[in-house]
Amino acid sequence: MSSLSILGLDLGLLLHDGWGEALLTGLYRSLSIAFGAFALGLVIGTLAGIGKLHGNALLRQLLELYTTVVRSVPELVLILIVYFAGSDLLNAVSGSLGYGQVEINGAAAGILVLGVVQGAYATEVIRGAILSVPVGQIEAAQSFGMTGPAIMRRITLPAMLPAALPGLSNLWLIAMKDTALLAVLGFGELTQVTRQAAGTTKEYFTFFMAAGCLYLIASLISNALSHRLEAWARRGLPKDVRA
Amino acid sequence: MSQLAKPVIDADVTEVQAQVRPPALGRWGWLVLAAFAVYAAASMRWDWLASYYPKLLWGLWTTLWLLVVTTALGLVLAIGLGIAQAAGPRWLALPARVFCTVIRGTPLLLQLWLLYYGLGALFAANPEIRQSALWPVLRQAWPYAVLALTMSYAAYEGEVMRGAFLGIAKGQLEAAQSFGMTRWHIFRRIWLPQAFRRALPTLVGETILQLKATPLVATITVMDIYSVAAQVRQATYLTYEPLILISVVYVLIALLIQRAFAAFTKTHQTRSPR
């Protein structure tokens, strides 16, 4: 079956022996975990970003610790800590409720651990973006009699979007690449599947190159989409003023 | 050369700059940290430190030299990638651009495994390489770790350098030209120093990201501090203690990097060019 070969890469393995489908399934898992983690990170980031600016001293300091630690400790270490702490916590809760040991779903665990990491970076992006909204706009909203949450929802969050989007699209790219780290925990995402395929067939170059192409295509498509999104969010703003 | 007038550096640059705001810990933050330290000292097990500290120190040394060597090599490469994209001829600019895009668009872990398993298997199958004088080096894991980390740093920082080179005002280069400087002279004395200053703030962020990338080398059997911690975990069945210890070490190194760059910037950027 290995007659089809380009540049010494054995494409027959990808097309006929089912490994191609395995890689695509891996890509699908990677992308869904990345999407979940990004969404979770966005929620954490928005809440924590607001908390960092408007919270009390204790909350602000706790959030500062969270972002500082996450942004200087390697993802690999954080993923292990969050994974073990999360499963211990879950088991403690289910144990006290009388359910015994719980097996954690791989994708959910991946989303949780990467989401916590993403959240720290998203916090900084959103905090910076909120600060970039001109004070006058917020004062105008106040003079219209809007309450704090209404101002946040209707003025600050929409107005900060152009400033936040470049950082957020960067984070999405990081989320996609960081799913590869879950291979170290043994989750069946793209990098892990690739390693298994390469190890079984001994065709290391073929499979790592193929997976690289998949990641690259996903990155390039994301890039193109995020540029359009940024252009849309910046509509009506003067050119080349980066918030 | 018409691109030279472009005033803005890439969005990435401002992004990384925003990332490295030094931590602002107040009373509450230190209190929480102290409470955690007391808890860790009182109810966690640290007796393994006595027997593992030589290994941990050795692992720390590996992490540090990997960081320093790959950052230095990567920076040199990044300058080349940046200038190739900013001013090079098409046949140089295009490969440089493709290199940066490919490295930045794929996970480092995958690149590392491609080099170590793929290239390693290729080398092992080649009798000429097996018999060459380089083989004792190539059969080890660290050359692949250094290569992968260097390429990664070069690609990310190369993109920044491209923006930094393009951001230098055209008039500067024209003035140098009118003084009769050669192209090499202009590059070395006018263009590079100013571009480097522009890129300096991003170096902190990129270097900390590089520090965070080093534990990946543990997956190809390089004994850095992370892999020593993993060993401790397997040998003692302690889940959190070794991970917490190396987390503290990584935070300290990151703070050290921030301090070092801040000191460097202070002494080397007395007159900021505008």
Automatic annotation (TrEMBL), chain A:
Residues that span the membrane, as ranges: 30-50, 62-84, 104-122, 155-175, 204-225
Keywords on record: Cell inner membrane, Cell membrane, Membrane, Transmembrane, Transmembrane helix, Transport
GO terms, molecular function: transmembrane transporter activity
Places the protein is found: Cell inner membrane; Cell membrane
Domain of life per record: Bacteria
Family annotation (InterPro entries): AA_ABC_transptr_permease_3TM, ABC_transp_permease_HisMQ, MetI-like, MetI-like_sf
Pfam families: BPD_transp_1
All residue ranges annotated as the ABC transmembrane type-1 domain in the record: 27-226
Primary location recorded for the protein, binned into one broad class: membrane
The protein's name in its UniProt record: ABC transporter permease subunit
Source organism: Paracoccus limosus
Automatic annotation (TrEMBL), chain B:
Coiled coil: none
Record keywords: Cell inner membrane, Cell membrane, Membrane, Transmembrane, Transmembrane helix, Transport
Pfam families xrefs: BPD_transp_1
One MF term in the entry's GO annotations: transmembrane transporter activity
Main location: membrane
Membrane topology: Multi-pass membrane protein
GO CC field: ATP-binding cassette (ABC) transporter complex
Span of domain ABC transmembrane type-1: 60-261
GO terms, biological process: amino acid transport
Location relative to the cell: Cell inner membrane; Cell membrane
Transmembrane segments: 28-46, 58-88, 108-125, 243-264
InterPro entries, alphabetized: AA_ABC_transptr_permease_3TM, ArtM/GltK/GlnP/TcyL/YhdX-like, MetI-like, MetI-like_sf
Family to which the UniProt record says this protein belongs: Belongs to the binding-protein-dependent transport system permease family. HisMQ subfamily.
Protein name: ABC transporter permease subunit
